[in-house]
Amino acid sequence: MTAVVPQRPTGGRLIDQFEYGLDAPICLTWELTYACNLACAHCLSSSGRRDPRELSTAEAEAVIDELQRMQVFYVNVGGGEPTVRPDFWHLLDYAIGHDVGVKFSTNGVKLDRVRAEQLAATDYVDVQISLDGATAEVNDRVRGTGSYATAVRALENLAEAGMRDFKVSVVVTRENVSQLDEFRALTDRYGAQLRITRLRPSGRGADVWDELHPTQAQQRELYSWLLGNGDRVLTGDSFFHLSAYGEALPGLNLCGAGRVVCLIDPVGDVYACPFAIHETFLAGNVRSPGGFQRVWQSSELFAELRSPQTGGACTKCAHFDACRGGCMAAKFFTGLPLDGPDPECVQGYGENALAARDADLVPPRSHLDHSHTGPVRGQPTLLGMPPVPAKLCDESPLAGLELR
Amino acid sequence: MRGVLIDAPVAAPAEQVREAGAALPSGSGAAAPPPADFDPSLPWRRARSVALRPEPFGALVYHFGNRKLSFLKSRTLVAVVETLAEQPSADATLVACGVPDTQLPAYRRALADLARSQMIEERT
């Protein structure tokens, strides 16, 4: 790859400036661990088992020091399930003490009353509870039996502790898109705020994307719902491909990968975005000389991403300025060219492109997979696997025992 | 993305930024502050809980308290915000930073926006 850094224009729209990248990310996602107590069917990072090469506490502190120097004002911490790291609460305090605010995503497994009170008393921390169904039935099919109850218990604990403005984070699927109003009612009940994001075919998400991604008709409904409710709902600006329906959605309608956002994974690898854990989008590692700053500012991959798209089918489309060709990761993991339409292109070009793929094409897969290898408590039933009872004793005291 | 000098998702906590960057306006979130009256003849300064990060296009400003993020889209405006504290008034700052007369109204509007989102505060 030979990266020629294009000349940045002066003035003009901010979105055009962002295409040329920033000296430091506006915010970045930091997956602290691949370990997770759940085995969600659509996990974007194929999490489950801890990676033995995970950054140590001291290495994580060094990353925070660097983010402070670069004035990255806050990080989105995730995983895996970040709170299962024994040093999670220490790193949270360390970041806040070093002017790096933290928003973390959790399934709620560790948010008991004591932790909820601790969080409510901490400034500059924001909590996001993942829930992918407004009912246990819809949620647990994807996230696993018992996961709805766990999340709701965490919401109750946070609300009781007086925590304000925490988020309920929903990945919009074919099965829950009709529940948006119910999600709103649920979050209102706890004084929380609803955040909805797009399902990507990343990680294990690739296995269920065909089955779970919203239909064209549902995308249209979602767009109308966002136009009507968007001022009260957070989206991480992840639905910008819907802007090609006509009216731009609030927020930044641009792929920020390597330009204004990036991902640091549990072993310190830096990827262009949280949905692009693949060697193609690997820019470097925070453990290498120069650390994160050198990766962000000097990687050839990021230099390449920091130029406006000039070629490809999409630039000739009348809607290109609205959707900017959509999501890079969604295209990549469905085997579509990066300068062509998003697989969920609302003008229908994505469906055509998917249909026109070579029959022998095998879409790229990540080189990483930390999925649990054995059965997991409360395994998702979406994939047609027999449900593992939440507790072995729910079935029979002898279930699963091999008696010789 | 409409502002000439600043892009201020004024009602939006910056936590809303995730995959892509700018935040969407939000009606809820932290208790909305009363609209600050901006008087350019008074002394102002960058708010104490606000950090400013220079960027090629201008700067990012972040309020650690209300978690709002704004974008200053001109280097002159960055200079204005940074030197407010050294000048007897906002208007004096604009003059000291060489803002042309014709652009004064636009700069005053930008400062008023920043006051509204608590990025700058009155000095007493």
UniProtKB/TrEMBL annotation, chain A:
CDD domains: Radical_SAM (cd01335), SPASM_MftC-like (cd21123). It catalyses: [mycofactocin precursor peptide]-C-terminal glycyl-N-{[2-(4-hydroxyphenyl)ethenyl]-3-methylbutanamide} + AH2 + S-adenosyl-L-methionine = [mycofactocin precursor peptide]-C-terminal glycyl-N-{5-[(4-hydroxyphenyl)methyl]-4,4-dimethyl-2-oxopyrrolidin-3-yl}acetamide + 5'-deoxyadenosine + L-methionine + A + H(+); [mycofactocin precursor peptide]-C-terminal glycyl-L-valyl-L-tyrosine + S-adenosyl-L-methionine = [mycofactocin precursor peptide]-C-terminal glycyl-N-{[2-(4-hydroxyphenyl)ethenyl]-3-methylbutanamide} + 5'-deoxyadenosine + L-methionine + CO2. Its EC number is 1.3.98.7, 4.1.99.26. The keyword Iron-sulfur applies. Its cofactor is [4Fe-4S] cluster. Residues 22-232 form the Radical SAM core domain. This is Mycofactocin maturase MftC.
TrEMBL record, chain B:
InterPro entries: MftB. It comes from the Bacteria. It comes from Geodermatophilus africanus. Residues 17-40 are annotated as: Disordered. Residues 20-31 have a biased composition (Low complexity). This is Putative mycofactocin binding protein MftB. Pfam families: MftB_chaperone.
